[in-house]
Structures are given as C-alpha cells and as structure tokens.
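Field reference: sequence -> structure
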Amino acid sequence: MNRLDLFPISTSIENDSLTIAGHSLASLADLYGTPLYLYDRATLDVSAKAYTDALAAHYPAPSRVTYAGKAFLCKAIAAWTQTHGFFVDCTGEGEIGIAVAGGVPREHILVHGVNKSLADLKSALHTAGTIVIDNLVELECIQSLMTSYQSPPSLWLRLLPGVAVHTHHAHTQTGQHDSKFGMTPDEIFAAARFCQENRLPLSGIHFHQGSNFRDPEPLLPAIDLALDLAREIGFSDEWHCCPGGGWGVAYHEDELPHPSIESYVRGIAEAVIEGCKARGLSLPTLHLEPGRSLVARAGVALYRVGVVKRRGDKTWLLTDGGMADHPRFALYGARYSCLPVQAPGRERGERVSIAGPYCESGDVIIENLPMPRVEIGELIAVPVSGAYHLSMSSNYNGARRPAVVLLGEGSAELIQRRETLEDLLRRDVSPDRG
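Structure field:
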C-alpha cells in the first residue's frame, strides 16, 4: 500500500518535498522548530462530515457526535468541535476547563470519569449538560450536591457490558467483566432506583468497549443488553443511548485502507433501530463518541534526525523527540510508519528503528521500518500522530512539549506554543535557604 495514504488528505509532494495544505514541512520546521506537531483542518472536517452524514443517512431519530477530548484537547480543538455542533467528552475538571475556555457551551459538555473527585463533580454540576455516572458512590455524592445547583445536568449510567472489542493490546479494552469502568446490570438497576427515589434527572445509558477496533460485531450484544436495561428501567419518549466510540484508523501501510466510518455508523444504527422495535422502545437520541477516528490521521509529528547509528543489520535514527511526546509505542507497542520530508520517494534500501533522546530503552517511536537512507540533519514525518500522543505527553528528562500548528489552505495557526524552561520551573517552590 502507498505510505502517503496514511498522511492527511491535503498532503502532497511539491518540489520533491512533503507539504500539507500547501505548506512546506521543511519551512514549518524552520519557523517553529522540532519536534513539531501539525494538524490538517481539511482532514478534521472531512472526518467530522463522515460521521454526521452517516448518522443522517442511517438513523431516523435525533443523533449527536461527541468528540472524545482525551484524544487531544486544547482551546483551538474545542472551538473546532463547535463548528460542527459536537458535544465534547471531558474527563475531570481540567478537560472541562479547557472546553469552557474554547467556547463549548454547557449543553455540549459531557463529563466522564471512573473516579471523579469532589472538585470534578462540582465543576461538572456547574458547567456540564450531562454527567455519565460510573458508580453508586459517585451517584450518592451527586445527590448530596445537587440541591446547590438550580439547573442540574442530565445523568446517564455507564454500563459494564461484559464483552470487549478486539484491539491489539489489553490496555485499550474497557468492556470486559474485570474492567475498572462502569456498573454491572445489577448495579445499573440499583442506580436507576436511586435516581427514581431521589428524583434525579436520569435520561440515558452509556457503554464503551475499547479503543482502535475495526470490527463492530462485539458491539451488538452490548447494544442488546443496554436496550434490555432501558426497557426495564422504563425509559420512554426522550432518552439517550451511547455505545461509546473507539473506531480505529490505519497507523501503518500494512493496515490500509482506513476503516470505513460509514459502515461502523450503519451497523450501530441498524442494531439500535431493530433492537428498539423488538422491545417496543422508542428510538433514543443516538450518541457516538469518536476521538481517534476524527483526529489521528489529521496529525503529523515532525522530527529532525540528530544521530545515525549503523551497526551491521541494525540502523538507529535518533531524533529530537520520542516517548515524551509520542508514547504509544512505549505504552502499547503501537506500529507507526514514516517518510523523510525531502525526496520521500527515494528507494527504501534499509530497515531502521527510530528512537528519541530519552534515558529509556523503551524510548522508541518505530521499529524495523523500510526507509530510504536517511542522514544526520534530515527531517522525518510520522503520520497518524494526532490522537493520544500530546494528551499523554510528559516532561520526562526535562522534555518540553512541542509546538502545535493547525494548517489550512493559506493559513498556519500556532495553537499551542512550545514549552520553555520557565514553564518547567513555574510549579516549583523555591527552596528555603535558611
């Protein structure tokens, strides 16, 4: 498969050099430095439209897309979600604050969290339209706080369906019986009774089974279970059902083509429609929570090679970024691909491993990838880097998080500046020198 197909849709080769939305990656590296993360607005918009179009085509009742903020959230991305009218899924007070600062209105903020703190719950009650309840303790805490808020948010219950989707790593599965997330059916019934007895605004059921999957088949028994519970709880005319998100993308050319968003949405919509009809349920407002499949392909990580080590059959390209900003290989063994920015069509004559500058053997971005012969000082671009890297980045070894630029035709907007040494020191308390 063509490695270039992993890159954002506006990527092209001009003057034998990679460009995105008409912008030279080499020029962007010179202007903003490296490591550098680039997001393509056109790819974001096309992915968003694929979801909204598929829901409109296949689901006859109201539907919504909720952007999963954990994939990558900053003020500019929060603002972008509102150009499509999306909800934003926030986990805790920090993400809620970013969403609010990015202009997301209360009715579009949905709050998750497996162990929400008191501060998280107060922030959610103050600024969110929906809270997804993970456990009974949390529900009791919300009930005790609710009287302080004149317009309480709607409440959904998070179901643990007992079946996970197939993913490449156990750490990306969330729906299995021993998962830390959500409530069993018995706990769901207890939570529903508690809501009814205390007149809490219960209006929906949510579940999520895993991340980066390609086969929607395991969603079907979970949808059936959720609909059975909805019927027993007594949801009627206006209720909400969310089977989560997690639809996958292609990270490596061996995984192309990118999974079809349309087929994923169609499968869920048909299952909900048929299931509700069989149970005599009214169709719920159907919510989907994509994050990765909206932003992963839109993002490219740009690095400069500082050292090349050729030792027999093993070649290392050592770059100025690694696990501190691109941690998914270290966490999950995730596969990625890469192209040199200059003359990307060169013959791929050697196999390389690409690693960063940090003091960890696990500081690897890519292993054993066919590449052209790359020399010191060259730029390399790692596609499909838009999800979960920046949101899980760190200051390990004193790393400063990279700058982030949003690209459009004729525009390059710095949406996150590069961290500085002053940023690293800002939280430190000066030692008492007596």
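Note: The first strand starts at residue 11 and ends at 14.
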